[in-house]
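Hey,

The postdoc asked me to send both predictions to you directly instead of through the lab channel. I've kept everything plain text so nothing gets mangled by the mail client. Protein one:
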Amino acid sequence: MSRCTAPVHGHRTASGRDNCPACRGGGYRTYGRYATYPSYTPKLSSSRGGSSSSGQKVKASWSSPGSNILYSPAEIRTLTPVRKNVVKRSELPDLRDVFLCHAWEDRKGVAEELHDILETKGVTVWFSEKDVQLGSLLLREIDKGLAKSRVGIVLVTPSFLKRVRGEGIADKELSALLARDLLVPILHDTTYEALREVSPLLGSRSGMNTIDDTMEEVADKLAELITVV
C-alpha cells in the first residue's frame, strides 16, 4: 500500500499532491495555498438496552435457560432477596404462590385483570376479592395474606394511595411487613413520588411499574419469580 509523503514533503501545492503516490487523485480540497482533508467523524458504537446510565436489562439468576424475560437493575436488586425467601418458603405446605393486595375500589378493575392473567399462567393467587371480608384493615389484610403465600404484591394505584392515607398507616407498622422481604410494590397509573407522600417506607422500595411493562409482562416476571424447580 502506498504511503502518503505529506509528513516529509508537504501537500501545500497541487504538484506536491500529484507527486504523492497515495494522494494523487484523492479527495482533498484546497483553500488558497493550504490543503484540507476530508473530515472524519468516528462512529459511536451502540449497545443494546439504551445508555449505561439507565442500566441495561438482563436475565435474572433464577431465570430458566430458555427464558427471554429481562429485568432492570432496580428490579434485580428488589427481587433477589424476595426470591431467596420464595425458595425457602417453597418447602412450606399449603401456601399459595402470590398474595395480591389492592384497594377495594380496584377489585373489579386492574386487580381482577392481574389476578386473571396470573391464574392463566398457573399461578395460585390469594385474592382479597375472594379471601378478605369487606372492611378489613389493610395491614391486617397484608399480614394474613403473607402468612398464606410465598410472595406478596401490593398493587399501588390512586385508589390504594387514598386508602393508605385514610387509614393513617405508620411506617413503623409497615416496616415489620417489609422486613420479611416478601412484599413487592407494583405501580399502576401513579408514581413513586405520589407513593412516598403517603408512605415513605413503601415508596423507598423499588418494584415493578406498568409504565415500563404491560400487565402481561408483570405477570410473566411474577410467575418466573415464584417458579422453583
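Protein two:
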Amino acid sequence: MRIGLFVTCLNDTLFPQVGRATVELLERLGHQVEFPMGQTCCGQMHVNSGYEAEGLPLMRRFLEAFDDGFDAVVAPSGSCVAMVREQYPRLAADTGDAGLVEAVERVAPRVYELSEFLVNRLGVEDVGAYYPHRVTYHASCHGLRLLGLAEPPLRLLRQVRGIDLVELRGAESCCGFGGTFAVKNADVSAAMLADKLNAVLDTEAEVCTALDCSCLMHIGGGLSRQRTGVSVMHLAEILAACEE
C-alpha cells in the first residue's frame, strides 16, 4: 500500500523520533511510505483559537500536499487527524469554493490516525513488537471523543510481547493540555495535570503512552519536574520496538 506520512508540525519540530518510528513500523508491515515535503501545519491551532481565515491557507496547503493518489494518509496524532476529518469539510463548505470542497472529499476520508489505520483499516493487531516494560495508556481527547478510538490502541498494546500493561485510573479524562487552553487557563490546566500525574504514579508504570505527543509533552513535563523517573513514549515508538 502506498502511504503518505502526515507527520504533524509538533512531531516534526519536537518529536521527530515519533515520525521515524511510524515509518519503521509501516515499512516493517510491508508498506511504501512517502513524506510529502510540502506539508506544514494542518491549521488546527489557528482554527481552534478562532482564527479560521488564517487557517484556510494551511488547509489548502495540506490538501495540495496529500492529494497525490495515496491509498492512505497516516498520522501519529489523533488531534490532527480529527482536524482534517471533522473540521475541513465545514471550513471548505463555508468558503463556497466547489474545488476546495471536492479536494476535501477526496483526501479527508483517506486520512487515518496510526492505531486506527492498523486495526480498523488493515485488521492488524499484532505488529511484532517487543517492549518488556510496565506501561500505562492515556486516552487522548480528540482520538477518543472525535475519532472514537477507545479500543484500537489498547488492542495493539495487548499484543506487544513482554509488556506489562496496567490500566490508568481516569484514562479518559483530559490531561489539561488542550493546546492554547493550557496557556489561557493555566491554573485549571495545572490542576487537571496534577490529577493525571497522580493516576499515572498510582500505576507504578515505567512509561505512560498515548496517541498524541501534545498530551505526552504536557504529562511528561509534569513527571519530569517532579523527578518521578517515569517517562513518556508515543504509541508508535512502542509498536516499532522489536527484539534484536
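Summary for protein two, as requested: Residues 134-240 form a domain with the Rossmann fold fold (CATH 3.40.50).

Thanks,
C.
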